[in-house]
Amino acid sequence: MVFIVWAVSPSELRRARIDTARVPKLACHAQSELASGLSMSEQLASLQLARRNRAAAFCTKGRHSCRWGTPGFWFSVEKQDKRLTGSRIGMTSSYNPWLVFLSIAVAILVSFTSLRLASRVAESNRTAGRAWLVLGAISMGVGIWAMHFIGMLAFSLPIQLRYDLGLTFGSLGAAVLTSGFAIKIASSPKLQLGRHAMCSLVMSLGIVTMHYMGMSAIRIVPSISYDVTLVAASVAIAITASFIALWLTFNLRRETDRYTWPARLGAAVVMGLAIAGMHYTGMAAAHFQSGAFCRGGIALDNGVLGIFIATASLALLTVTLITSVFDAHLESRARLHAQGLQTVNARLSHQSSHDSLTDLPNRSLFIERLQQAVAESTSANVLIAVMLVDLDRFKVINDSLGHGYGDALLQEVARRLQDSIKHVGIVARMGADEFLVLVRVAESKGIVRIANEIIQRIGQKYMIGAIELHVAASVGITTYPFDHSVPNVLISHADEAMHDIKSNGGNGFQFFVPGTTIFTMERLQLENDLRHAVELEQLELHYQPQVDIASGRILGLEALARWRHPTRGWVAPSEFIPLAEASDLIVHIGRWVLEEACRQARIWIDQGYLDLIIAINVSARQFRQRDLLAMIQQAIAHSGLQAHHIVVELTESVVMSNADRSTAILDELHRSGLQIAVDDFGTGYSSMSYLKRFPVSKLKIDRSFINDLGSSVKNDSIVKAMIEIAHGLGMSVVAEGVETTAQLACLQRFGCDSYQGYLCSRPLNSADIAAVLGRPQQPMRESQVDEWLLGSAS
Predict the structure, then answer these.
(1) How far apart are CA 213 and CA 229, in angstroms?
(2) What whole-number distance in Å separates Cα of residue 213 and Cα of residue 145?
(3) Cα 636 to Cα 547: distance, rounded to the nearest angstrom
(4) In terms of pLDDT, which residue wins out, 212 or 566?
């Protein structure tokens, strides 16, 4: 049997707080108790061996053993079943269960935090993701390192361990780099099996490096030896744990449902136990030889240091976890707000591009789709047809039954139109009862077939509530590329074709013929130019005299607007007056005519033409203006005229369109002192019952009757009757368009009061008409009248 007593140097005994004076006594006691039975040569051999190994060795064949020691250090005599050979025996080790439990808790918290951090990196934007990656690598690395270090502190030997700070912090760096690599991989969009396995291997090597680098930081002599089998087991555990950890982290990084957090907690427990298992397997592989001692480095208090490191790492991990949760909460709220905003924007975008009643695309979206179709048609041999569908008699239904029935009818029409085109185009609502249809076909026969189907479907009966309704469709069609126009013009052309078929009875379709819209485009341009004519001083007033037939004296002047276009020259009144009357331009032009005529009349009156009367035409739109009288009175007052100097001329159709309202307006104008004349008499209603109610002072016979004067007995009779009726109602008569002396002679014979026409003068500007006003008066003598009458009779 071999008995070995281990001892250390006096300085080491003092650091272990052992009374060095007792060492010789202990050695002697051991010698007296154990040396019996040894030969002198065996005792000398053991002493020599003890001298080489810094211990006292005694060999005996007995069965005794003894142990002496004090807290923190011990002497032992151990029995061995072999003869003295000089080999060393391993130290007895133990673990602090509280520190072991604390290390496992840190491992679980690290695992749970890593799951959260991978989620934050994956869900954050590029800049925030990088920040979370750095923070996560530090937090997770410190946590893993702390778990391993606490596990090492939980391990205790008979001697006090000392550590190399460089290697210790090097193991921390390895943990941080490994953690950053793991989070980066787990937050990637995809994790294929090959990449998963390779990354697991790299991650496990990092963890193994950290562990064994930390173990190598223990400054012990002789160095730690390892059990190869257990080391291989720890590496296998590290690889398996890394593989599982990456898979769990990758698949649990998205918060998809309410079970995500429990799943993460369970995964964290599994990952934490795996990490702890790897550590303690690696610790079990370590072998500390008997008689080993530590030198250099720093000595640490295991219990206090373990609690400090655990507290610091737990605090860092907790702060990181809370921060990630709070940041995720803020991002979740921001994401919810963004989703809500996106939903609202999508709804607003849909509403801006779709009709609210039928949910069909509106005109703007239709034009966008039409532009796309035109662009695509250049590479495909297809025809693009643009149809404008207008409902016949819809206004009657809407006005008689109300908008509720009208809206329901429009919704049903929209559905039928969509059924008609199926998947070859789109339907849009243009407004009111008009719809736009875009179809793409290979040949024109397809367009005709679709148009007929639309007319047939829309013409079928509708049951809106309990009421049966019927409408028809007028369809205007234009095709691209035959009509090679831009989308807006294509729609305009389809609209023209629709109005063409509608004017011919409706309930059918009509193709647009290119080349028929020149007038329309010119008219649009002319209207735009007319809007600037007043401010650019392109309008002028020309005046045509009204002459007393009996005396030849000029009684007054009719003010007529003329337009000198900068490029077209003089534009005929028959061209621009209808344009002005069709819009609000006539109101502005009429105001300008009134003010300019009053201003010029004041000049002529100041020149001595005291009885001169100015006739001013008032359009239908002006006549309906509530401030008509105020506008006329303001112009008269501003120029200093009297009301009797102004004659307001109204066409017969304007006066008769709403007789009751016209009567009230005319009475108001008459009471203000203005004279009223009915223009173009005989071409409109010519209702004698209403005419006698109006306060009219003059009737103007239209030129269409004057042109045939003297050439037709019937025409002469009509003119004569008009003059007699007017005189019977107390009105004077003015004949328009008198160009010949024969016409004047007939009018004089019929008793007409005055005339105007080219026989006296064409309309002239204010400068030229002054010469006409200054001409001597030349009344027509009776001999001249008889001469013309005899000449016309022969």
Answers:
(1) 19
(2) 11
(3) 24
(4) 566
